[in-house]
Amino acid sequence: MTDPRGATLAVDAGTSLIKAVVFDERGREQVVVRRSTVIDSPHPGWAEQDMTEVLDVVRSCIADAARQYARPIARLAITGQGDGAWMVGHDGKPVRPAVLWNDARAVGVVDEWTRDGTLDEAFRLNGSLGNLGLPNAILAWFLAEDPDAIGDVRDVVTCGSWLFESLTGARGLHPSDASAPWLDAMTGQYSDDLFELFGLCSVRGLIPPVLTADELTQPLRASVAESVGLEAGIPVTLAPYDVVTTATGGGSIATGSAFCILGTTLCTGAVVETISTEGAPTGLTLHGGEGQAVTRAFPTLAGTGVVEWVREMLGVEDAAALTELARGSEPGARGVRMWPYLSPAGERMPFLDADARGVIGGITFSTARADIARATLEGLAHVIRDCLNASGAQITELVVSGGGSASDLWCQVIADITGVETVRVAGTQVGAKGAMLYAVVAAGDYENLQAAARALVDRADKFTPDRSARALFDERHEDFLQTRDALSGRWRGWHRGLAQSSS
Q: For the stretch 381-401, what's the b/e string if a residue is b when 16 or more beta carbons lie within 10 angstroms of its beta carbon?
């Protein structure tokens, strides 16, 4: 008989979708509740969310999931979207809408930091390549363009930390959220040199302390418990932000294990044993906390949104229909190739260029819709390979998750192009499962994450690279990189032309 005392309710607060998932003590999904949230764009390129609305949706999801499970919930776990700037006032309430990770208002700040060498110098200290969605760039923009908007701010946090404080009253950042851009890569502590380098010493006090391992689990507030139908005082664990937590939920914990989240942001990464700040600046170095591994992550700006755009352009019903259409082509897409840099904010990983733009090439009168569909999947797989190579890790396997991983064809294309055995995990809520793993370890149910993952994470399918296609995709990948480098000199002109034609 299932022990109801072991149930964990995990919240995964994504950018456009919030999920509350109840797992039993064997890690099996029992209840899944989903709610959409609104992303506002008050100006072109801006991306914001109402923080109060996000909290209300989270509480609604928790209450609904707890009601559906109809048994005691032993603990809560929280993970959320990372980066951005979620600004909290001295009264503990939002000062303004959250500025999200995919907001592009700070493009001028990042351009200047790129030209004057600030980002390169910061990488030597921080181990992360700065980008316009990180809080340092956003704060620099506010200081220059709208300083009054942050005059009443007490803390600049992230989605997960905002939710954690709202549920428990505990202030602070998870180490993964603080990693980029604030922490010294080697010590895992705040670096005053970084604040000085970014010209942000005047707002140093707005960045709250990093929570210790003991502080990452706190009792649920009585007022919140009453409103969501849970027992007051049950433990609430703040897990790393969604990139790291989703990797954990897929079992990517040991050194050499790589992951790719096929979601809104196509995020590829690897668990590493040592940190290097040498070489060309790229990627994010994310600390998991005391006793936890370090993750090198490469969250791009264009993921399944590219699939959605092509789906709409080709007039097919949904993403599943697009990948099924792609089966009508062949490896190499009959010469059609895609560079899938479709985000209006350009690209940030594994290179940084706010002017990056997408290209589809190799089209003739004989090109079929299936070829374009196949080229889309292959183009995104080349991005994954690019990120894996940039990680510098010796990869033993690639674990895929996210909505895109439901496609057998896309998983096989990724295996073929990367040359790495690709694994799909069982279950649909990998980010929430990762949060659950952190919570059960914090509760003492398992000695560490490795033991929890061995017991609770199941692998569903493996996709072995087709060795007969190795030469083709090696050649294609080299061309993918060379062509991108050649295009980079033209992107800014395209961007300016678009701006002029729309003005």
A: bbbbbbbbebbebebebbbbb
Amino acid in the structure at residue 113: W
pLDDT tens digits, residue range 99-108? 999 898 999 9
- Cβ 25 vs Cβ 7: under 8 Å: yes
pLDDT grade, residue 4 (50/70/90)? very low
Q: Is the peptide bond before 42 cis (omega within 30 degrees of 0)?
A: no
pLDDT tens-digit map of 42-79: 999 899 999 999 999 999 999 999 999 989 999 999 99
CATH at 48: 3.30.420.40
Q: Give residue 293's pLDDT.
A: 78
Chain centroid offset of residue 403 CA: 13
Chain position carrying tokens 């003492």: 444
Instruction: Give me 476's structure tokens.
Output: 């294609």
In this prediction, residues 167-179 reach a mean pLDDT of 96
* Cα dist from 397 to 145, 225, 256, 435, whole Å: 45, 41, 7, 22
Closest C-alpha to 198, from 181, 213, 186: 181
Burial class (CB in 10 A: 0-12, 13-18, 19+), 212: exposed
Distance CA 307, CA 377 (A): 8
b/e per residue 442-461 (b: at least 16 CB within 10 A): bbebbeebeebbeebbeeee
Quick check: pTM over 0.85? yes
Instruction: Give yes or no: residues 138 and 279 share one domain.
Output: no
Residues 416, 378: Cα–Cα separation, whole Å: 9
CA–CA separation, 221 and 223 (whole Å): 5
pLDDT at 496 (0 to 100): 57
Residue 407 lies inside a defined structural domain of this protein: no
Secondary structure in 3-state letters for 179-211: HHHHECCCCCCECHHHHHHCCCHHHHHHCCCEC
Same domain? 154 vs 21: yes
Within-domain flag for 178? yes
Residue-wise pLDDT tens digits, 265-309: 789 999 887 788 888 899 999 987 776 778 899 989 888 999 999
Domain final residue pick, 210, 225, 245: 245
pLDDT digits (tens, 9 = 90+) for 209-227: 999 999 999 999 999 999 9
Q: Taking all residues of the chain, what is their mean pLDDT, rounded to a whole number? A: 92
Walk across the sheet containing 459-463 and list its strands.
284-287, 294-299, 266-272, 257-262, 397-401, 422-425, 459-463
| Residues 105 and 235 placed together within one structural domain of the fold | yes
Closest to 383 in 3D by CA, of 337, 346, 339, 343: 339
In this structure, is residue 258 part of a structural domain? yes
* Largest separation between any pair of C-alpha atoms in the chain: 67
Whether the CA torsion 94, 50, 438, 204 is positive or negative: it is negative
Q: Give me 364's structure tokens.
A: 């003739």
